[in-house]
Specification:
106 residues; 4 helices; globular
Length: 106
């Protein structure tokens, strides 16, 4: 669950660090992995910093689970809830690279 706070408790842990993996254009906001000492990368969780303010939002999940939650409208977030309304996915389609890019005939 996303909780707004000035500085997430995980950042105060000795040796904890953040690694940026996404930037929200126009806002200055970043999504980070929270990497704690001795933690395997598969266990890193997601932090969102609003960029132009002091608040952080921590999500106790990895980035793939977080992105899926945002895109399906199940993420508990102050920042990305609008995306589900904008996207309103009705159908998923997958195409091969050849279908998308066309074949060269070689």
């Amino acid at each position: 669950m996303g909780v707004l706070e000035d500085k997430p408790a995980g950042l105060q842990e000795a040796g904890a660090r953040i690694l940026p993996w996404a930037f929200e254009e126009g806002t200055g906001a970043f999504l980070y992995w929270l990497a704690r000492p001795g933690q395997h990368p598969d266990d890193w969780t997601v932090l969102y910093n609003e960029g132009r303010g002091p608040l952080w939002e921590h999500h106790d999940m990895g980035c793939v689970a977080f992105l899926l939650a945002v895109l399906t409208g199940t993420a508990e977030t102050e920042y990305f809830g609008y995306l589900y309304e904008v996207l309103k996915p009705t159908e998923h389609r997958f195409a091969t690279a050849d279908q998308t890019l066309g074949t060269t005939g070689q």
